[in-house]
Amino acid sequence: MQFTNLLINWYLDNKRDLPWRKTNDPYAIWLSEIILQQTRVAQGMPYFYSFLDAFPTVFDLANAHEEQVLKLWQGLGYYSRARNLHKTAQDIATGSKGVFPPDYAGLLQLKGVGEYTAAAIASFCYNEAVPVVDGNVFRVLSRYFDVETDISSSGAKKEFRELAAAVMPTDNAALFNQAIMEFGALQCVPKSPDCSICVMNESCVALQKKKVALLPVKTKKTKVVNRYFDYLVFRDEQDHTIIHKREAKGIWHNLYEFPVIESVAPESTDVIEERIHTLFGSQYAITSVAVNTVLPIVHKLSHQHLSIRFWEVGVKGELANGLNYEDLVRYPFPIVIINFIEKEYNLKIN
Predict the structure, then answer these.
(1) What is the pLDDT of residues 110-126, one digit of tens each?
(2) CA distance linking residue 272 with residue 133, whole number of Å
(3) Does some domain include residue 248?
(4) Of the residues 33, 128, 182, 257, which is catalytic?
(5) Label partner for 318 (CA 20 to 30 A): which of 151, 210, 244, 261?
(6) Any idea where the HhH-GPD domain is (predicted)?
(7) Domain assignment of residue 147, yes or no
(8) Is 184 in the same domain as 234?
(9) What three-state secondary structure class fits 287?
């Protein structure tokens, strides 16, 4: 088929030299696919090397402490990926003696592995003819074939999977899947693609109809929740501070943070200062309270926007279980706290 031939020839001429393309080891490919979920290749590649260096086999990863895994993941975001990665490694190491499921159906049973990731691993490792369907694939197929189906609709994934399967060479699924993802990442990009140099510009229906900017169609909006965090950086007379593990389910589960006051609406500095004395005044001899970040730091996650301020809270005497600021480098923190510590205390956390 013209589309498939053009796509594969383009890929062979333009593909990036990526380390996970040089192996069919399911452990390495699984690791790369989990890291690259919601992550650009340039950002994810150092993490891929770091994880393979620290955990050369699935047994090494399984035997690691979760805190060690989270520390290595620090700065990559979407930390549930790291926790699922660790749990899945333990399941594979103990449940199947380190052997990954050999097909798409089995891979789908792994924690943290969805349809896209299972298809990628199955095709790259075992050349199983299962098409990958992600944002890149939606975009390439919808433009080339002029598919106006709303990609946020319930039946879209099934429709695009069937279309991809129809143009996939069943004897070379790995090559096809790599090619279509790479084409979407490098050539058929979301905004302002350079169609003048595209190898498909003579047969792309969206280009002929001047609809490239209109496809793929996506009408469903993600509902964003606003949250307000005021972090309290306690400092005693020995220049010690305190942190705790965030054990509540949700964002940053099992990462460390300073004591925090969470609000559902923005509060004035006077209100937060009063709450600091109310909540912590009986526990600590507070000598001073000052907001460090008058203008909140806005940290945007996929479904949440966090408005964050840091407060310096002076304490008389010595904090129980206090830490030197230099000790903080041992703990995994959310990136917004890492940035604060590195800037304010001239420490390198990563």
Answers:
(1) 999 999 999 999 999 99
(2) 47
(3) yes
(4) 33
(5) 261
(6) 35-186
(7) no
(8) no
(9) strand
